[in-house]
Amino acid sequence: MAIEKIIVLDDQPIIRKHLTEILHKKNLLVAQADGLAKAKELVDKDDFDLIFADVRLPDGDGSEMLDYCQLKSIQPLVAMMTAYASVESAVSCMKKGAFDYIIKPFSDDQVDILLKKAGEYHRLVKVNEHLSLGSVNDTEHEILGNSPAMQQLNDLIRKVARTQATVLIQGESGTGKELVARSIFKNSTRSKQSFITVNCAAIPDNLVESEFFGHEKGAFTGAVSRREGRFELAHNGTILLDEISEISPVVQSKLLRVLQERELERVGSSRTIKVDSRVIATTNRDLAQSVEKKEF
Fold this sequence. Notes:
This protein is an alpha/beta fold and 296 residues long.
């Protein structure tokens, strides 16, 4: 199922105009809302596939759309929009059920990546619903399907989930890597803790370290306050590094330290912080070939 109808919810006309222009280039139908009241009115009148919602609005918090949409028979995905200084608010929204988030100002490519991810998610949900017809799901968190291949996949997921091992999921785009990752998380001993996703391909190169490891106040221009990175937010839980092959060699070396030593340092700090986060990574590349080419 493709993403076709979208709501852009933001109180700033320039943001609504910019995002709407990007979406129109992709021949998508777009409705605009400058506040929660208008967005709820749109959702009541029509079915939408995706909502881009600003975290902070004049009449409330954009995360209110999460609860509101859950009352609908057809529930749109909700992606939060946020300025860099309020990324933690967006991550908090993801814990409440937001599909993803995007940092303002954003590029056409970043929007395109999010749309492809949303389209893939929609399609796989429909495939899973289809596979469930006529089948009995006797395990709460398994991917449904009757074929030997699907049964073998679920057996492997359950075995891996019981361990604390770092997991790499390789496969072409659209094959359900994130669904497998979430199933591993749901079947693990960490299922009651945080599940933090990071779209490595969507984070600007100059912000990757701060996103992963956090930063101290004044560490760089725009760092107006201290913030925790994704690994800290996933402490005792699980972190999904989506498309891990897209990160730079410099960040790869620092990521290796987290994987091996379970410790990190925030940008602008020399204090070592211990973290206990299970790592699941996905990629659509052949990493063995990337290593041979010295690309990873």
